[in-house]
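Lab notebook, bench 4. We co-purified these components, and the gel suggests they stay together. Before we commit to crystallization screens, I want a quick structural picture of the whole thing.
Request: model the full complex, all chains together.
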Amino acid sequence: MYLWIIGLIVILIILFPIGLAILTRRKWGAPWIYFCAGILTFVIAQLIHLPLNRLLVKVGVLPDTLPEGSDLIIAALILGLTAALSEELIRAAGYFLLKKARGFGDGILLGLGHGGVEAMMVAVILAAGVSSFWYSQNIDLLPEAVSGEQFAVLIEAVETAKENPLIAIVPFIERVIALGYQVIFSILVLFAFKVGKWWYVLIAIIYHMLVNSAAVLTTSQLDNIWLAELILLILLAPGAIWFWNQRSKFTKTERQSSRSLVSDLPILSVSLKKEWLFQRRTKRLIIVLAVFLLFGMISPLLAKFTPQLLSSIEGAEQFADLIPEPTVVDAIAQYTSNLTQFGFILALLLGMGAVAGEKEKGTAAMVLSKPLPRWIFITSKFIGQAVVYFIAFALAAAAAYYYILYLFEPLAISSYLIANLLLLLWILVFAGITLLGSTLGRTTGAAAAISAGVGALVLIAGALPRYGALAPGGLLSWASQLAVGAEAAPNAGAVAGAIVLIALCLITSVAVLEQQEI
Amino acid sequence: MEAIRCQGLCRTYGRVEALKPLDLIVEQGSVFGFLGRNGAGKTTTIRLLTGLAQPTAGQAWVDRILITDGDESARKRFGYLPEVPAFYNWMTPREFLRYIDELFRNDLSDRKKRIDELLELTGLGDAAKRKIGGFSRGMRQRLGLAQALINQPPVLFLDEPTSALDPSGRKSVLDLIDQLRGTTTIFLSSHILSDVERVCDTIAVIHEGQLLLVSDRDELMTRYQSNVIKLEYDSIDAQTAATFLSKLEQQTWVTSIDGDGNTIKITINDLSLAKRQLLPIVVEHNIPLSRYERVRPTLEEVFLRISDGLNGRN
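Here is the predicted assembly.
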């Protein structure tokens, strides 16, 4: 029960800021690029904040572990101050550079980007932490980059969860409150630029410091987690009231979006139909299906007959003896390795021209001058590819299952299917990355270079000592174990990480395309 | 009532001012010719007005909807034919028009009829089932025109609509523009000045990103009218011709004479005197006159005079 709820909570934590951003975009017409700017301010702020805290520990200003009594209050205030200074000053620098970001919706979107990516990271860490805690394995999955209050909430949630599954909702409530704070801080800093009164940045820093200090104190001192959240909610109230009252000062000159999300859906369906036709007419569908079906069939065959093939080659007979009797594990290893290698290449080759090719040929200018929203242009391309890969995996999985059954032993169908879904998710991460590369690049060649570069970075990230398991590569090792029915800790962190990566690739693609001249 | 309004609309790329602050109003129902040399800022203006580019400053409205803030509803209010229209080569023209029609969410009940009519109108009825990939540039241009008209737009942006067409195709497009006059506002950029002269009722000239003038076509031609009278006559002997030209040169109202076979162009400085005295001289020399015309300048000449004048000042 608890695992299902926490799974739902992880998805909610990822989708909630995106949902709010969609509403903000609809209501105020604020461009998605400000959401991405918010993500960037968070990342840069953390690059300053975390080393700064480490430095303060090193020089003795901050203790290694949270102390008791008055020292705790001082430590909480210092922790709050470092967070507030790094985040609000970087945010102010962001507004200084983004001269056009002066609307109410712009400020909200920037705050949602900042708080949203933090929420997504928490979701990944929560998924990884809960799945590994729950199975009492692989404790290393917990990364260092967890802030004090997040870590406390996570531990508290997991420890008490077994007694009360509803406690799983706490991380979500905590993130909703945190998002509220981020939006208020963002509007406070924006207000400083809007009215030219710089002390609003100071107010944002002090408010941020007090809230963060309170978070450290409540999570470390209070046993009742609901009370801790209530205190944070009460501290949110003055900011929320100020925020509500400022709306009218911004909205007079605000952009207005005249379309609703619902009115866009029929156009999404039209665009999806066109993408499906594109996949069929350009033979992409048949190529992907043929490649996947081929490797679905030959992977178990290769695993089974490699020793016999070697023994039939003159001079290589002695190597055949070195190879142990092939098992289903070898067949699954072949299957995973072949499909992911060729899937990666196909994702790159077939996806690199998705947007760049249309920009190069001029078809993007033709259709984007029609009532085709750019978010639909991007998402329909991703969904079109996802459908093709889904069918391809279904075919490959069926073929491989048949040959494994015939040559080796039956597999547990449910685990095998989940393993294939994990492999599909892995491919979709690279489809998302390639789509982003294709949007960033002005030409197909540039798109290919960007996609290959980012794809390679994501693959290398899997080798990082503590965080590697959260990278998409973690999906492959879990899928391999799952397919053969081995006992393995579920790597929910990698699943959440992959979903976050795909979401961020799509949002950034839309944000970039909105700003581009076609 | 205005169909297009630009207010301080400008676009810079680095230090290059592709379009200097543009204030412009195009009246509803007019056929508006937008003239300029290559790189003058014509396509940049159209791209800003169709939402494909974002202005550095300023705003623009199409059919009274603000287009420059990214409001996608404005895109329902215009049709757009790019200079080099591009299509999905794997589609047939019918499929492409259906796709565009679906994007506009036009009435489903008469979709087939609408598409058939457009294919016939643009002469693509016989090629309706062929892949666009095999189309000539002229066929693509005509399909581009068909897709621009699919939503029966109140405003139509045509960027060099006749540049890739043969004479017959050009005539069809110009006839079509004539038909749309009054019901659709047409913003037409072209370097084929005879086309602009033929169909446009209002003309604007842009040069190096700066709007130089906006004027009613006839008013513009009158303003730049020159005092030249052209005579054409049948063959005459050399002596008669020499005497006739010599007599003309003696007139005080003649500035210069350009002769070319049986045609002469007389530039005059006193039109009323010339009107009274020229024909008597012709009669006196027994010239077999076949044509007498006061020369109107072509739009090309007017355009060159405007832009050359500006270059001269620069």
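Chain B touches chain A at residues 47, 50-54, 69-73, 75-76, 80, 82, 84-88, 90-91, 95, 99-100, 102-105, 144, 147 (CB under 8 Å). Worth comparing against the SEC data before the next meeting. The longest strand of chain B covers residues 2-13.
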